[in-house]
Structure formats: C-alpha cells, structure tokens
Amino acid sequence: MANLNAARAIVITVALLLVLPVSAQQKSLSQQILDIENNRIDAMLKKDLQAIDAIMADNAIHITTDGSLRTKAQYLEKMRSTKGKFNHFKLYDFSIRLFNNMAIVTGHYENSKKVNKVVKPTKYGVFTRIYHLLDKKWKLVSHQATVVQKPVIK
To answer: Which domains are seen in the chain, by residue range?
Structure first.
C-alpha cells in the first residue's frame, strides 16, 4: 500500500510539474512568436529578403490574396523582382494559439505599397500563419491572406 501511495504521489508531482509551468512557458512562446511577427513586418518594410528567408522554413507555402500559391523560393523571387516596397504594414486584432511545436497566428492587417514614389491605396485583410518549431527555432511554414473591406476594430 505504501508503494502504491508513493507511486501516486510521484504521478501527481510529475503531472503538476508538467502542468504548472505551461502558462509561463506559453507566454514565453507567445512572446517568441510575437517577436518573429514584428521582425517579419520590419523585414517586409525594409524589403530585407535575407531576414524574410531566415524566418521562413525551406518548405514554406505562401498563399497570396489573389489565391496564388508560392513556394519559399517563388515568394522571395517575386519580392526581389517587384518594383517598390511596403510603405506601411500593421497587424491588429490577432491571436496566437500554441499546440506543442506549432503556433497558429491569425488576425487582421493593413498595408500599402510605394511604387515609383506613388503610395498605393491601403489594402486590408485577414491572415493565418503557421509556425513550426524546428531545431529550437520557430519557422514560418504556411501563410494565407484574404483581402477584406476595411474592418471595424472593436
């Protein structure tokens, strides 16, 4: 009976050790994803293809607002060859959901591009991005965006 109680105590202790730090760990993981999202926006604004390349997994898929599906290489080439760059890029009303070694980020964005010194109209959209923890680094594995009317932010 003593062995059974000792075994129960060990199981309960291990379960508590696994459960209790999760909220702190998730906050830390959420902050890591938030930092990557901020770095991604900064790289988009600067058209820093090296930084974007480092954020994306080699097998990443990027689905654009017009429904085009691009590999990482195709996405980077399109960015490289496109004239102009983002004039502003803002994320809001977004959430980060964590699942083991995956993070799903959803939310709204607005952005505009500057081409030949002309600022294009602001585009509004919703997005889903999926990050995968690979070799202790979060990598963007999937991106999908859809254009929407200017949302009402609560």
So the answer is: 2-147 (3.10.450.50)
N residues, the chain: 154
For residues 87 and 62, give the distance between their C-alpha atoms in angstroms, rounded to a whole number: 21
By the 10 Å C-beta count (0-12 exposed, 13-18 middle, 19+ buried), 80 is classed as exposed
Query: According to the model, what pLDDT value does residue 3 have?
Result: 54
* pTM (two decimals): 0.79
| Residue of 154 and 106 predicted with greater confidence | 106
Q: Alpha-carbon distance 62 to 132, whole Å?
A: 15
CA distance 95 to 101: 17
**Rounded mean pLDDT of the chain?**
86
